[in-house]
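Hey team,

Filing this mostly as a record. A colleague (T.K.) asked me to run one chain through the structure pipeline before their review meeting, and I want the input and output archived in the tracker in case anyone asks later how it was produced. No errors, nothing strange. Just documentation.

Input sequence:
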Amino acid sequence: MLREAPWQALLDWWFGSALDAVEVSAQRNALWFGKSVCQDVDSDNRFGGLVRQALDGGLQEWEREPQSWLALILLLDQLPRMIFRDTSRAYAGDARAQRLVRQGLEAGFDRKLPRIERVFAYIVLEHAEDLASQDEAVRLYEELQAESGASEKVLFAGFLAYARKHQAVIARFGRFPHRNAILGRPSSSEETQFLTEPGSRF
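Output structure:
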C-alpha cells in the first residue's frame, strides 16, 4: 500500500477537496484570510511541529518538486502568521520562503500547479518589503487573471487588486507600517497617520 506523501495532509487542509477555483476559495477563504484564535490553535495542533522544523531550516527534501515546494512555502509564510500571530516570529520564515519562491519560479514549479494554488506561492512576494518583489507579484497575479476562465475572473481580479494595494504601500513607505510595533521599529509621523486609515493593516 502506498504511503501518503508527508505534505499531502497540509495541502488537503489548506485547499480542501473542491476542484473549481471559485469553490475552493468559497470553502477556504475564512481559513486563508480570517482571524480566528480557534483556527490559529488548530493550525498549531495540526502542523506546528512541521512549521518549527521549516523555520529551523529543515525539510529541505520538500524543496524538490512542485507540490512539496508549495507545502513548504505554506509552512514558512502562511502558518507562522497564524501560529505566531502578532509576534515577530510570524515573519521568521519570510526570507527562506522568498528564496524558495524564486528558485521554484526559475524551475517552473508554479506552472505545474493549479491557478488557485499558485496564489499562495506568489503571495510570498506580496509579503516582501521591497518594491521589486511587489512588482513581480503584481505581474504574476496579472498573468493568473489573464489565464483564468470566465467564471474565475472576479476571483483572480480580487487577488490582483490586493497585490496592488500591497505594492502601493511598499512604493510609498518601503515597508509595511503595520509591522513596525511588532518588530520594534519606530514609525514615522506619516506612517502613524497612515495606520489610522481604514485598510492600512493587512
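Quick notes for T.K.: The two ends are 44 Å apart (CA to CA). The first helix runs from residue 8 to 15.
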